Amino acid sequence: MKKIAFILISAFVISACGDKKEKKDSTNDNGLTGTIRVDGSSTVFPITEAVAEEFRAVAPKVKVTIGVSGTGGGFKKFSRGETNLSNASRPIKEKEKKACVDNNINYLELEVAYDGLAVLVNPANDWVDSFTVEELKKIWEPAAQGKIMKWNQIRSEWPNEEIHLFGPGVASGTYDYFTKAIVGKSGSSRGDFTASEDDHVLVQGIAGDKFSLGFFGLAYYAENKDKLTLIGVHNGEKVVKPTLETVSNGTYSPLSRPLFLYVNSTSVASQEVVEFVNFYIDNAGILATDVGYIPLPAENYATQKNNFKTFVENNR
Amino acid sequence: MRKVKELLIEKLLFASASITIIVTIGIICVLSIEAFQFFSEVSIVEFLTDTQWTPLFTDKHFGILPLLSGTVLTSFIAIMVALPIGLSISIYLSEYAPKGFRKTVKPLLELLAAVPTVVYGFFALIVVTPFLQIIWPNLSGFNSLSAGIVMGIMIIPYVSSLSEDALQAVPNSLREASFGMGATRLQSAFKVIVPSASSGIIVSIILAISRAIGETMIVAIAAGQQPRLTLDPTVPIETITAYIVQVSLGDVEHGSIEYRTIFAAGITLFVFTFLLNTLSYRIRKKYQAKYE
């Protein structure tokens, strides 16, 4: 089943002719109808997808379509008013804010969960036990392009074999976040690696290559534990692996981050969007845990819910 | 009345014929204009000689060679697979197989070309690559070898079908003369029939190559997305077509230099397939004259 889902999702994304997951109707009913369009980060996608699936039990006639264009791609559509909600794995950028203002789009930012960025290698890799931030920087910074090509250039005791790098593409919030945290400047990295907005492509690439190294959101590691090895990152004091505990208490530093959902103000005129977002906030904690992320503290969800309530009242 | 009808039909036919030409001219215009703007920012010398292709990243390089090497490498592997198999099939079907058998097998073979290429892509990624990794443990998950092999399987019908037509077109008198001289079937097939049909066979190969160069799905799925100047078939590479897919899907700003790289890459691809198609057209023309 997982495999089929993987094939479908990847096929849709690659073929560009339908990167939407459609949730079909079933029988019971509470009167809500309509379509909710969501696009954006592939990292937030699993949470939104899980919420949409549960939401179907409450409002079977509401169709939720979720695209995975990456955070940047999602904001592009969001700022043109093409989507109701936008998944984001980083806060909205100034440029994107401006695009929203230009098109008269007001929005609300909601924090939905925490994520750790996982650094991964192939299970057949028996030489790496941890990375320091400096080592990751040395591998990924722009200056490494065409120069840092072998494992033993990072630590001399590692094998004299070519290193094959996999990472999210430039439209991805994960890429922006990783480059900011590791290289120091968002969007600045080497260019000679396999870059894909589709995390399944990265999983497939790392799982099939002994000399691979890659990074992506923790949830995709949780789905593929048997095919990948998670590597701890030295936070300045000790080596820490991303877990529920280390991400939420901030010791998995610098690679943990909050995830966001953005709501378009004109959309909250539709009751189904309001219901969906409320349902999202109520269930994000549990569902985020299910798909491999870390929930916010309960009081934060309460704050988000209040913010959203005010936002809805102001935009009625 | 009849005259009007005739005229109307003539005009309709002319219109449908001109649509294809107009569309082609339109595509060439769009490609050229955008590519021209690209080359006003990036020198054509850099484009053709730089060995790195990283237009989306910090340290921007615009060398088409890594993408070109990826395209050439996968197409070469595909032809290495399709040529011997396709040619053997065509010789068997034309010279050895009974007529009834040929009539059933040929359409079946052509079915290979009817399989959606996205299916071939996943076949390469989740069946062929793991199988090759049993033999070759250091093979990457994405590599040009399995993509090339599967692409070769896909283009077998192009080679076999067109070559078979060419072999069939050789006049029977040549066959009979060869048998009359006491040649065996094998001797007449390889020493008389194949050389006489050689131009048709070459055309089939060129068309297959041009199909392989333009193929997108298989290489985008199975060969990786990392532009790399190499002829090593075991590592991830990126072809011109796969790059165009990757960029069109991302969030590149319209009118930016990153956006225009698509057209520069596209026109390179176009020039290649155009040259190959012209070549095949020339050869075919020469070949038609031969036995008429």
Which keywords apply here?
heterodimer, A: 316 residues, alpha/beta, twelve-stranded mixed β-sheet, 21% strand, elongated, B: 292 residues, mainly alpha, 12 helices, 76% helix, globular
What is the CA-atom radius of gyration of chain A, in angstroms?
20 Å
Largest sheet features of chain B: none
Helix count of chain A equals: 11
The chain-level structural class of chain A is alpha/beta
General form of chain A = elongated
Helix percent of chain B reads over 70%
Sketch the major β-sheet of chain A.
12 strands, mixed
Percent helix of chain A:
25-40%
Which blocks of ≥5 consecutive residues of chain A have pLDDT under 50? 15-28
Oligomer: heterodimer
> Pair with the most extensive interface?
A-B, 45 and 39 residues
Q: What fraction of residues of chain B sit in β-strands? A: under 5%
Can you describe this structure?
The complex is a heterodimer of chains A (316) and B (292). Chain A contains eleven helices and twelve strands. By secondary structure, chain A is of the alpha/beta class. Chain B has helices at residues 2-41, 44-49, 65-96, 99-111, 117-135, 144-168, 172-180, 185-196, 198-214, 217-222, 240-249, 257-290. The longest helix of chain B is centred in the N-terminal third of the chain and has 40 residues, at 2-41. In chain B, 42% of the residues are buried. The interface between A and B is large, with 45 and 39 residues.
What's the layout of helices and strands?
The complex is a heterodimer of chains A (about 325) and B (about 290).
Chain A: H1 2-15, E1 20-22, E2 34-40, H2 45-58, E3 62-67, H3 70-79, E4 85-88, H4 94-102, E5 107-121, E6 130-132, H5 133-140, E7 164-167, H6 173-183, E8 194-195, H7 199-207, E9 212-217, H8 218-223, E10 229-234, E11 239-240, H9 244-248, E12 256-264, H10 271-290, H11 298-314
Parallel strand pairs in A: 2-3, 2-4, 6-10, 7-8, 7-9
Antiparallel strand pairs in A: 1-3, 4-12, 5-9, 5-10, 5-12, 10-11
Chain B: H1 2-41, H2 44-49, H3 65-96, H4 99-111, H5 117-135, H6 144-168, H7 172-180, H8 185-196, H9 198-214, H10 217-222, H11 240-249, H12 257-290
Helix pairs in contact in B: 1-12, 3-6, 3-9, 4-6, 5-6, 6-9, 7-8, 9-12, 11-12
